[in-house]
Amino acid sequence: MTVTSTLKDRIENAELLAKVVPVEDAVKHVVHGSTVAISGFTKSGEPKTFLPALAWHFSQTSPEARITLLSGASLSEDVEGPMAPFIARRGPYMSSPASRRRIHAGEMDFTDVHLSAFARNLMYGFYGDIDVAVVEVSRIRKNGSVILTSSVGISAEALARAKKIVLEVNTSGPDYTGFHDIVLPAVHPHVGWPLPLVNVRDRIGTPYVEFDLSKVVAVVESRTPDHPVPFKAADDTAKRIAEHVIDFLLRCREQYQWGKRLPPIQSGVGNVANAIIGQLYDSPFQKIRFWTEVFQDGMLRYVEDDQKFEYASATAVSFSAEGRQRFLDMFERSKDRLVLRPMWLSNSPEIISRLFVIAMNTPIEVDIYGHVNSTHIDGSRIVNGLGGSGDFFRNAYLSIVHTPSTRRLRDGRTVSCVMPYVRHIDHTEHDIKCVVTEQGYALNMDIRSPKRRAQDIIDRCAHPYFRPLLHAYLDMAGPGDEPRASDMKVLQGWWADYDAATRAFPQNG
Amino acid sequence: MTVTSTLKDRIENAELLAKVVPVEDAVKHVVHGSTVAISGFTKSGEPKTFLPALAWHFSQTSPEARITLLSGASLSEDVEGPMAPFIARRGPYMSSPASRRRIHAGEMDFTDVHLSAFARNLMYGFYGDIDVAVVEVSRIRKNGSVILTSSVGISAEALARAKKIVLEVNTSGPDYTGFHDIVLPAVHPHVGWPLPLVNVRDRIGTPYVEFDLSKVVAVVESRTPDHPVPFKAADDTAKRIAEHVIDFLLRCREQYQWGKRLPPIQSGVGNVANAIIGQLYDSPFQKIRFWTEVFQDGMLRYVEDDQKFEYASATAVSFSAEGRQRFLDMFERSKDRLVLRPMWLSNSPEIISRLFVIAMNTPIEVDIYGHVNSTHIDGSRIVNGLGGSGDFFRNAYLSIVHTPSTRRLRDGRTVSCVMPYVRHIDHTEHDIKCVVTEQGYALNMDIRSPKRRAQDIIDRCAHPYFRPLLHAYLDMAGPGDEPRASDMKVLQGWWADYDAATRAFPQNG
């Protein structure tokens, strides 16, 4: 086919240039029953041209086709939405309403795995053969190795393990050469090795991905930039949570003699995370480092300030439309202050522990003992998945779970995000060192039974309106170091009282 | 005081020899409010003379005294029992009936932490100052550094952080020189470093512990050998579980192309663990390596067989009376085939992951989705604690939870160890790859929603007698990928049916 000059500029390898085909042809390599592993993490670097074309192809030729789709993390709805009807099995993370509906209905099998483990399991062969890898790249080098784009996720593992490879060359964005640090995990019976990484800025791999060129069955062009993600500004609640987090960090600096060096920060996404990143900028901490999953809008101002900021490591950048423009404006400067790594490495327990990372994430709800539900509404229906929260909470130097103390539901009720128990546990009390809400923070760092810790979490973190109900639960919970009410009738009464309280919450309606 | 010649032989350092005092004097360094960190792990290497003497001292002089007691893991009841009335705070693991009673009654605060995290938290200062370290040693070297005994646990951290040190020189056992590999974890703001350990047999530290001699306030002699632990022989159920485990491992060897090299094995304690270790010996696997917490009776025969066995790494040896004698008989031979390390290292996520360890532990109960309760009866009352199960399950190459499908209670009922939900979760479904009972095994390694996995766990692992009840729960659980019944009345009905079933179980009395 005729290859545009823009595309030619991005493909320096003649063998692969000869494999450029229209996407309509490329999608035929995926058939019913295929396992497909793709690039993409928090809507960045996904195959934005291939997947919608594949969905169209299936809808026209084989509406009964079903595939297994594996990605780094979430895809944009423009990409996953049309594909959802054709996905039988999905992992390890999604935020697609279309997929979620099918998962809840039992039409799509979804496996929720720690992101670091997922990438390694893929290499170990636990998910079987990878039939086709579809990976977005920004450039194909002379020897055929590739430069990825705005995310790394599982791209390198997909290219290493797939039987067939489709490369999607994105000509709409810049050439990302210099942003990546690529290295594959060891696989038994090969001997594992210590990762020679002791600073956030250390690079231990290559800036490109090498793989077996003979497996490439198609190269397609994409002219679609990453779909922007909404930027959630901090509200008053988020700001108060952020204040408590900064307070806690300042207290730790004093108590544990950090000196001027704040340990590297991992921060989730959302408005609370944005508030924390914002207030951290205005805090006394200098030379801040991020060891995190996603580099986002709120971190952009750091890149402009060499006093405030030292370095960031992530597996993806993910921006609003405005943030993306700002990022592109300082693209060259960013290259010296930001590195993107495979998600097994960004989320590596070994590195998170070694670097003393401070982890912060928002759950759906916490319980009075410090157990955390990050994934399932009513304990039954998955929202997005676990992502990397477990990788970070478990291995962090300090693990902070932050949530508003209440949440307003669409039906008008206001529920407590601090509950007597949560019906799906993703992170146990063993992994959480600090619970923060806009009310305050409670520590789980000393030698103290869960029952006494609970008093603290209720009195410092729960909304005052719900505190009497939570204390009432604890009073009736009976003996034990971490007592749980077991009498069903009593429990039923508690839930009835709680339900009435959620309807009578003062700010409701 | 007069020092016996046996003791003199063990103390080569003159400064410390001069500090030998009767234990009755040494205990006075511990006072009401002290935080005391001691040696000891699974009843091995504990200060067997000091602690009972301290308990006697308190009972005679200050019955109101309360201290914080931190150890590696469990102590023998001879040691912890007398002390229990004087312990206000305890961590991170215990198996003492006396302590357990006080914990359940809310008289003793107990903190349950992953063992690897506990040792690091101690170094980080999260548990505050350590007033006194009491550590059993087998020899004091010329320069004052010490050789530990049958366990390492937190001994090195205790010696590093304590303000005062009491050394308990055990003259009843051998000189353990050559068995240990001692290294301390890095503490922020020092830079963490990669652990240069890529084989089970690699040693990365020193065979002795160095510390500030000026902190030693007393040296006491102990003539008490480690209290023996009961050896639980494998019953038929344990043997059938072990057969399924070996089957699973052989299947993995084939499927994941291990060749002849079985990844290192971590094995818990108890009769199922003994059955597995026993059958592993009779399996086709050769050159077996253990990367585990405790080296026990069942592993002794390996040491005699260079074909079957390569090397073992643990943080303690723990034997029955008979096992201990056998171990002493081949003490020199063992030295070349076994190393004891600090528990932060034996349980290090970095190393467990790098070495592709296969982890196996017994829980109290599992649920149909693969969540595991390892610690709390009825979700409320702690048994022993988490120990290292989370360190190993989370970071293992393969994580295997094994349990009999039913358990007979003292009241005559027979309960199912596979439940619709467990009321305390220590390990989530995300961390478990294989559930084994004497009925069979179910995998959690592929891309599959929890609801479908549940069908498998019920049909392959639950006792046939309880399967209809478990399916009934799943049928009423409603929509979702991991559905949980939420209607309290329906739930109440299910529990009533279940309770009746536990009483009517065919083999019951």
UniProtKB/TrEMBL annotation, chains A, B:
Family of the protein in this entry: Belongs to the acetyl-CoA hydrolase/transferase family.
Keyword Cell membrane listed: no
Cleaved signal peptide residues: none
Organism for this UniProt entry: Corallococcus macrosporus DSM 14697
Acetyl-CoA hydrolase/transferase C-terminal domain location: 323-473
Residue ranges of coiled coil: none
Keywords: Hydrolase
Name the record gives this protein: Acetyl-CoA hydrolase
Source species, domain of life: Bacteria
GO BP annotations, alphabetical order: acetate metabolic process
InterPro entries named in the record: AcetylCoA_hyd_C (IPR026888), AcetylCoA_hyd_C_sf (IPR038460), ActCoA_hydro (IPR046433), ActCoA_hydro_N (IPR003702), NagB/RpiA_transferase-like (IPR037171)
Chain ranges of the Acetyl-CoA hydrolase/transferase N-terminal domain: 15-221
Example GO molecular function: acetate CoA-transferase activity
